[in-house]
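Re: beginner question about structure tokens

> Can someone show what the tokenized structure looks like for a real chain? I only ever see the sequence side.

Sure, here's an example I had lying around. Input first:
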Amino acid sequence: MSLPIQRVSARLGYHLWAETYDSTPNPIVALDARYTQAVLAPRAGERILDAGCGTGRHLEALQAAGARGVGLDFAPGMLAASGQRVPGTPRVLADLLQPLPLATGTFDAVLSALIGEHLEELGRHFAELVRVLRPGGRLVFSVYHPWLAAAGKEANFQLRGVEYRLGAFAHTLEDYRAAMVAAGLGQLQLAEFHADDELAAAVPPARKYLGRALLVIFSGVKNATQGPEGGLARST
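And the corresponding structure tokens:
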């Protein structure tokens, strides 16, 4: 028997999902956990913003690396969960599509993981993330592969007999690249990560995606002059 479906905003959805998010099998989250911190390569003493910190899994990794993490999320439930996971880490309730309550040029790096499909306006998001970066600071942005949104896949979870669906904006890889360049990021790199046997063993539903790209990670550096640099190095 199928569950009743309720469509909710991303903010409300993630607030409700917070209590079970970490126990929900999710191949995209599993790939992100495997690769994104390695791309970010946090160093001891660095001040790093986790923009869209969720339950704090990346903040926990930053803490283990000796970095000074700051978490930001728009869902109160997620911020509460991250506070339990990394007590003492500064956290901010804010919307990533609005001006952030953070000073300009204060972070060595910014991480924004798995929130891309919920961003209606990419330009606002990247402009604010670049603003809070110091010149030469780096940004790492992970997102589920655009083909998933184009195929109608969206974040969803079950809670107390209801299936909640959060929707997804179908941005392309070029949409992301162009927004990053316009915001003042250079030295852009893109890497795609595929479903493999390791992922299928950890998250069995991922077996149907074997060999397909599921996760994309962009990285770039804030230009000292804020001039656009359009090149994109790509790896798989």
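Each token stands for a local structural state, so reading them left to right follows the chain. The first helix runs from residue 10 to 17.
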